[in-house]
């Protein structure tokens, strides 16, 4: 099935809430279209990496897990500076999420 990988310096709850708001607002991106169709997914923290390695880690994990569209829900290869990032912390999570419904629909 399809998955999505993303980086954040925020709490998981806050980042998921932001994603949910964007999905409800109708933003046309692969992940938000899937949320609108299948509902809110469950998130998994794949790694916590130093902030200066976030972009490289996101790129590597998107490539490793094959989550760039159309095979997955990432709209890009990753590594971009996101407006969702907040000031640096001691380490930041790389997130992955999908739902059974998302996976069942793509198998």
Please explain how this structure is put together:
This protein has about 110 residues and is an alpha+beta fold. The protein is built from 4 helices and 3 strands; from the N terminus they run βααβαβα. The chain has helices spanning about 10-25, 30-40, 55-65, 100-105; strands at about 5, 40-50, 90-100. A 3-stranded antiparallel β-sheet has the order 1-3-2. Helix 1 (about 10-25) packs across helix 2 (about 30-40). The longest helix is centred in the N-terminal third of the chain and has 14 residues, at about 10-25. The model is unreliable at about 100-105 (pLDDT under 50).
Mean pLDDT comes to: 80
- First-last Cα distance: 6 Å
Rg estimate, integer Å: 13 Å
Oligomeric form: single chain
Specify the biggest β-sheet. Answer: 3 strands, antiparallel
Classification by helices and strands: alpha+beta
One letter per element, helices H and strands E, the order comes to EHHEHEH
Overall morphology: globular
Low-confidence stretches: 99-107
Figure out the total of helices: 4
DSSP strand content: 15-25%
How many DSSP E strands? 3
The amount of helix comes to: 25-40%
Strand order, main sheet: write it out: 1-3-2
């Amino acid at each position: 099935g399809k998955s999505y990988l993303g980086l954040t310096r925020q709490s998981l709850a806050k980042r998921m809430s932001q994603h949910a708001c964007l999905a409800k607002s109708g933003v046309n991106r692969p992940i938000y279209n899937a949320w609108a169709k299948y509902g809110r997914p469950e998130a998994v923290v794949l790694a916590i990496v130093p902030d200066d390695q976030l972009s490289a880690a996101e790129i590597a994990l998107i490539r490793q897990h094959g989550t760039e569209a159309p095979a997955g829900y990432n709209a890009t290869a990753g590594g971009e500076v996101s407006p969702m990032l907040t000031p640096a912390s001691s380490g930041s999570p790389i997130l992955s999420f999908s739902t059974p419904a998302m996976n069942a629909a793509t198998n």
